[in-house]
Amino acid sequence: MSVSWKAYLIDLDGTLYHGTRIIPGADQLINGLLEKHIPFLFVTNNSSRTPAAVAAHLQGMGIPAKEDEVCTSAVAAAEYIATRMPDSRIAPIGEAGLIEALQEAGLTMDFEQPDVVVQGIDRNFTYETLTRAARWIGAGSRYVLTNPDLLLPSQEGLMPGAGTLSAAIQAATGVKPVVIGKPSEHLMNYAIARLGLKHEEVAVIGDNMQTDIAAGVNAGCGTILALTGVTTQDNLPDFVRTSGVKPDIVCSSLQEVQNVICGHK
Ligand SMILES: [Mg+2]
């Protein structure tokens, strides 16, 4: 098979690794892209880690990665706010990855009367956090959500994600956030702009139909589904039905992904 995409946006958890365990072929896939000089970016909904921490996590598993190859939903959220609401004052609810991204974008923090509440995963979220968010948004602050994931896998079992915290804020305010991460096209648009390519020249590689593949379709990109995580040959038809999208290419392993995208050059 031969494909004509010029660059790739690659999901992380479930596509290149599970937690701290590398998925077979992930290191060869990235090395293959580097050898063929095929541009790519790592694109993750996870807002808790900084790009430097994501790159270090990948390197720790033997996957070559540089900080400037990582796009997080936190960095895309900061860029979204800095571009569209440049002088706004921000109240972040989140972890280091989000706080650092907002600071790097030159945004000003304001915990009294913010123009924008931007929320990601916050493992120190309390009743007080919810109260403050509800009051700020109730008083007219815009509401930006880094990513809508409800649950995250972890070594100990499922953990509530940013989307679950957001459900509480939405219940308290009746306000729907602007969503940046997958399946929204905003994170993809940010990553595509960094590549400097047209949407149709780029393909998304991921394991999740409802986030990765839906985001790729929403952004007008190609899509490659890797059956390395959430989606299996057996549940794929169900996901096609519930997500309403279909991947351009389905690969059962990362070796197959590599053959598809590196084989033709
Ligand atoms: Mg994934």
TrEMBL record:
<comment type="function">
    <text>Catalyzes the dephosphorylation of 2-6 carbon acid sugars in vitro.</text>
</comment>
<dbReference type="Pfam" id="PF13344">
    <property type="entry name" value="Hydrolase_6"/>
</dbReference>
<dbReference type="InterPro" id="IPR023214">
    <property type="entry name" value="HAD_sf"/>
</dbReference>
<dbReference type="InterPro" id="IPR006357">
    <property type="entry name" value="HAD-SF_hydro_IIA"/>
</dbReference>
<dbReference type="InterPro" id="IPR006354">
    <property type="entry name" value="HAD-SF_hydro_IIA_hyp1"/>
</dbReference>
<dbReference type="GO" id="GO:0016787">
    <property type="term" value="F:hydrolase activity"/>
</dbReference>
<comment type="similarity">
    <text>Belongs to the HAD-like hydrolase superfamily. NagD family.</text>
</comment>
<dbReference type="Pfam" id="PF13242">
    <property type="entry name" value="Hydrolase_like"/>
</dbReference>
<keyword id="KW-0378">Hydrolase</keyword>
<protein>
    <recommendedName>
        <fullName>Acid sugar phosphatase</fullName>
        <ecNumber>3.1.3.-</ecNumber>
    </recommendedName>
</protein>
<keyword id="KW-0479">Metal-binding</keyword>
<dbReference type="InterPro" id="IPR036412">
    <property type="entry name" value="HAD-like_sf"/>
</dbReference>
<keyword id="KW-0460">Magnesium</keyword>
